[in-house]
């Protein structure tokens, strides 16, 4: 066989193989790593997304809860996974805060991932265990300040959204509390309900059901405007915490080097999900807002992560907090 023919044959074979791969993906279940324990906000959001994307991809989408160290254990697990389209990562603003909070990370946040797109924005709420003797935010503030050496604040570890909200809260009211780290705010919520830990700022995906069932006390929402899911709960801003405005963005990532045909299918499935009325309703019920489809794109998530790192790094450096 002459050289030109050989090259031609080889090229056609490769093209065919790529096309078959592209057509076939996904041939087995896809796993989304959730860097937090089951039952928490990231887990809840990911399960709703997994069901919606699974329908489009005609494949099962499973969850791997890898909580701990403020999400960095799970992020690292996803960064080191095989880049074949079968392991993904769903995480939030913690992707942008951990580079400033940790002296050393075992992964490179901006360069170890391919981007699929933004998923949803989730507001947060300040809640406390039911036995807290305060019926509104002003009472809570004076009670908390007077008992600052006794009260404990739950987090999902350094670098989590609950940790970030706590940092901003403590900084704003100029009072520090002992923090208690959990592998996710699902388990933290059990302890808030049980009264083993006193208060937390956590995403509505975890708190709205507990607030509505009267299992916890709520003192404010972290957004600039009130929430449709909790219309009677005032914002922290309107209760005197000027400038308090925190919403947790969430994005879907893949390990760097994931084949383009797989990434394209994942982007299409994400876009179908955020436009699906069932997905939007399920999230609205727990106070979360799916992004507009224009944001469910790789470019949009990449730009967001970069701008969020630039936004949070100087703010966090000022607090002088570092984790090893
Ligand atoms: N990711 C949440 C947080 O940052 C915790 C969780 O999803 O369990 O607080």
Q: How does this structure look, described?
A:
The protein has 324 residues and is of the alpha/beta class. The chain folds into two domains: 2-122 and 248-319, Bordetella uptake gene, domain 1 (D-Maltodextrin-Binding Protein, domain 2, 3-Layer(aba) Sandwich), CATH 3.40.190.150; 123-221, 3-Layer(aba) Sandwich (D-Maltodextrin-Binding Protein, domain 2), CATH 3.40.190.10. Helices cover 45% and strands 19% of the residues. The strands form two sheets. Strands 1, 2, 3, 4, 7, 8, 9 and 10 form an eight-stranded mixed beta sheet that branches. Helix 4 runs parallel beside helix 11 (298-319). The protein is globular, with a radius of gyration of 21 Å.
> Main sheet?
8 strands, mixed
> How many helices in DSSP terms?
11
Average pLDDT for all residues: 94
What is the global morphology? globular
User: Which cofactors or ions or other ligands sit in this model?
Assistant: aspartic acid
Tell me the β content. Answer: 15-25%
The helix content is 40-55%
Name of the level-1 CATH class of the largest domain: Alpha Beta
> What is the level-2 CATH architecture name of the largest domain?
3-Layer(aba) Sandwich
């Amino acid at each position: 066989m002459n050289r030109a023919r050989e090259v031609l044959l080889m090229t056609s074979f490769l093209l065919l193989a790529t096309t078959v791969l592209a057509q076939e993906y996904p041939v087995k279940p896809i796993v989304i790593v959730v860097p937090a324990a089951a039952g928490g906000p990231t887990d809840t959001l990911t399960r709703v997304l997994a069901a919606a994307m699974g329908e489009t991809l005609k494949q099962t989408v499973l969850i791997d809860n890898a909580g701990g160290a403020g999400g960095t254990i799970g992020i690292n697990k996803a960064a080191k996974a095989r880049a074949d389209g079968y392991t993904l990562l769903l995480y939030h603003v913690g992707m942008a805060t951990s580079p400033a909070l940790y002296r050393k990370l075992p992964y490179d946040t901006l360069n170890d991932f391919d981007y699929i797109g933004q998923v949803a924005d989730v507001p947060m709420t300040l809640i406390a265990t039911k036995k807290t003797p305060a019926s509104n935010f002003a009472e809570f503030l004076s009670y908390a300040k007077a008992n600052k050496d006794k009260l404990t604040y739950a987090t999902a570890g350094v670098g989590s959204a609950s940790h970030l909200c706590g940092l901003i809260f403590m900084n704003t009211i100029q009072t520090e509390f002992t923090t208690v780290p959990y592998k996710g705010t699902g388990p933290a919520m059990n302890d808030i309900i049980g009264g083993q830990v006193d208060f937390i700022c956590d995403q509505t995906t975890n708190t709205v059901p507990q607030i509505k069932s009267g299992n916890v006390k709520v003192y404010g929402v972290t957004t600039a405007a009130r929430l449709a899911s909790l219309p009677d709960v005032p914002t922290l801003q309107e209760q005197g915490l000027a400038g308090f405005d925190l919403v947790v963005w969430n994005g879907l990532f893949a390990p760097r080097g994931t084949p383009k045909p797989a990434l394209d299918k994942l982007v299409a499935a994400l876009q179908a999900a955020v436009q699906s009325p069932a997905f939007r309703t399920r999230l609205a019920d727990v106070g979360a807002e799916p992004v507009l489809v224009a944001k469910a794109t790789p470019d949009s998530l990449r730009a967001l992560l970069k701008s969020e790192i630039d936004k949070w790094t100087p703010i966090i450096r000022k607090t002088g907090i570092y984790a090893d």
